[in-house]
Amino acid sequence: MSTTYEDYEREYHGILARIRNFLAGARNYATLQEAQSMLNEAKRCATAMQGLAEVEGNSLRVQESRNLLQRDIGPLSREVQRQLNECQSQELMGGTTVSLSGGGGGYQPPDLESNYTDMDSLIRSSEDLLRESHSIMYETEHIGNTTLLQMGRQREQLENTNRHLQAVRQVAEQAKNILTGLGRRALKNKIALYCMIALLAWANLYVLHLIYKKHHKGSSGGNH
């Protein structure tokens, strides 16, 4: 059972090769029915390839798998259906014949039993095709559900990553605010320290001035 894009691709090309061999060789109603059944299998493979490519996010493979339906399956389906219609027409027309024997001619009635057998065969083949179509539809639905589930998981992962980034951004903003506050506080402390140093320097100068003034007055009084 194919599980990867490459597996479906190999199965797809193998089915197309068998169909082309059928069309290139001796064709009859049974082989054409088999070719039509294999075309449905090829459609299933192409649909699965497209679904897997969409899950992988590979746009090139998505476009390539879409082109398979138009490039390969479409023309082959039309050719097989055309040849099936020709075979059905030949089988239905072959039931009524006009026979000429001797000098006179007579009408031979159609072989109703043969016509009924052909109709039963057509009905059975239609039922088989319908069942195959239902099988392909169910498998396509399963692939679609699987694709949606995987996309939902990827969306959940992206949402979790987004929430994590928002939390990191909030922590970084808080850290920025704390660093800004510390910087402002350090600047205030620095300014206050400079003011204290300037005040102490002025006080020292003032004290020196008073000492000098007192000493100068003492010296002047001793001279007198």
Describe this protein's structure.
This protein has 224 residues and is mainly alpha-helical. It has four helices and two strands. It has helices at residues 5-24, 29-56, 59-93, 112-223, and strands at residues 97-101, 104-108. It has a two-stranded antiparallel ribbon. A hairpin with a 2-residue loop joins strand 1 (97-101) and strand 2 (104-108). Helix 1 (5-24) runs antiparallel to helix 2 (29-56), helix 2 packs antiparallel against helix 3 and helix 2 (29-56) runs parallel beside helix 4 (112-223). The longest helix is centred in the C-terminal third of the chain and has 112 residues, at 112-223. The protein starts with a helix and ends with a helix. Residues 95-112 have low confidence and may be disordered.
